[in-house]
Design goal:
globular, alpha/beta, six-stranded parallel beta sheet, 40% helix, 15% strand
Length: 280
């Protein structure tokens, strides 16, 4: 029997714990998700994060700018956010409008390191990979939290990480190695990748190839954490063909409703970590 992991339930439980800890702080932490332009999907996602933050006691600071803003002005505005009283977390909503896409790295680097709760700036990212950052990449942290929730001993298990992207594959691999585990990374160019996937006890996928992983590709009882997203017929699908792996995998996180909801909880958990550090 395959157990479908309920990310929404996990998110609720995690946010409740975060809310309790926030209530014990001596000040109200503030979080800002910088929105450039008015892409409907981005607006909806930012609004959702704003409501979630407010619900657990984090004040949301709106920072919305027109799509035609210059990269230089945007970076100056982002740097100013650190001066907002109580600011404990700033992220930049991606993707950026096409006119700013070429300046993506510079813009992400303009987020002050101490409040970079997405870890996408160069300094925060470097500290994460050195094992020195108290906060981490939210999606990667979500993958690990889901793995932890099913209480399996990972020592000695064959773990395959599909993809080495900046948001999932690369940081998940680092988090696993920090625990003394030895995951195998699988890229499109990897030789014998089908064999590696077939032999894996645990598969964490973030390649963004809709329904790529099917039941005949995995071993009986494999655990699959699906962190990939692709558009399909106006909706979102993951890297896993859920119906195909049902009955073969022991646990699988669905898309939507799996890693995504937990990622939001981990992001706001990062804001709490910054707040607790400031409150010391």
């Amino acid at each position: 029997m395959t157990i479908i992991i309920d990310g929404k339930k996990m998110r609720g439980e995690m946010l409740e714990k975060t809310k309790e800890e926030i209530s014990l702080l001596s000040f109200q932490p503030v979080f800002s998700d910088v929105l450039v332009g008015s892409d409907p999907a981005s607006v909806q996602y930012v609004d959702m994060k704003a409501k979630t933050a407010e619900r657990i006691g984090i004040r949301f600071h709106r920072a919305q700018f027109p799509a035609d803003i210059s990269a230089l002005v945007l970076m100056e505005e982002i740097k100013k956010l650190k001066d907002v009283p109580g600011m404990c977390g700033v992220i930049v909503q991606l993707p950026l409008p096409s006119g700013l896409a070429e300046h993506r790295e510079e813009i992400l680097n303009s987020v002050p390191e101490e409040i970079d709760v997405d870890c996408l700036g160069e300094k925060a990212s470097q500290r994460f990979y050195e094992g020195k950052n108290e906060v981490g990449f939210p999606t990667a942290l979500a993958c690990m939290a889901i793995l932890d929730s099913i209480n399996i001993d990972l020592m000695g298990k064959k773990i395959a990480v599909l993809g080495q992207g900046d948001l999932v594959g690369k940081p998940v691999t680092a988090l696993l190695r920090f625990r003394g585990l030895e995951p195998v990374t699988v890229r499109s160019s990897t030789e014998d990748k089908e064999k590696i996937i077939k032999e894996a006890d645990v598969i964490i996928s973030g390649i963004g190839r809709g329904k790529y992983i099917t039941g005949d590709m995995i071993k009986e009882g494999a655990v699959i954490i699906d962190a990939g997203t692709s558009e399909s017929n106006g909706g979102i699908v993951g890297d896993v063909d859920l119906e195909s792996v049902r009955g073969v995998a022991s646990f699988v996180s669905p898309v939507p409703g799996g890693v995504g909801p937990v990622t939001v909880a981990m992001l706001l958990g990062n804001v709490l970590k910054v707040a607790k550090k400031r409150g010391k």
